Amino acid sequence: MSAAVSQKEEVFCIQNAVTFETVASIQKDVIHLMHHNPHLVGYTLSFENISEVNSAALGLLVELKKYTIARKKEIKILNLPDRLLSLAQVCGVADWLGLRSA
User: What domains, with CATH codes, occur in the chain?
Assistant: First the structure.
């Protein structure tokens, strides 16, 4: 199953799977949306309706965080799967990414 990225108002939504097979396409699509919304003070990324996630998703979050820092913007993550939050905590990047447990 492939991933899909869409925009709902000021939120960029990722659906389906975030895996090694889909992450490059997702990153490209999210950065495209960020680039075409420079008026936003920050970006909100929602992991809604995720069917599958692996460590590639953590790499995606790190790259998107770097992208926003370079543009002096903030990024907020919504609906993060518990598995991904746990991985970020184990890797020591949860606080830097602004991730909190529910």
Answer: 4-97 (3.30.750.24)
Give 61's pLDDT tier (boundaries 50, 70, 90): very high
Find, among 65, 62, 51, 66, the residue nearest to 19 by Cα: 51
Coil, strand, or helix at residue 67?
Answer: helix
pLDDT digits (tens, 9 = 90+) for 46-56: 998 898 999 99
pTM of the model: 0.90
DSSP string for residues in 1-50 = ---EEEEETTEEEEEEEESTTTHHHHHHHHHHHHHT-TT-SEEEEEEEEE
Contact 60, 54 (CB under 8 A): no
CB 17 within 8 Å of CB 51: yes
Using one digit for the tens of pLDDT, what is the confidence trace for 69-92?
999 999 999 999 999 999 999 999
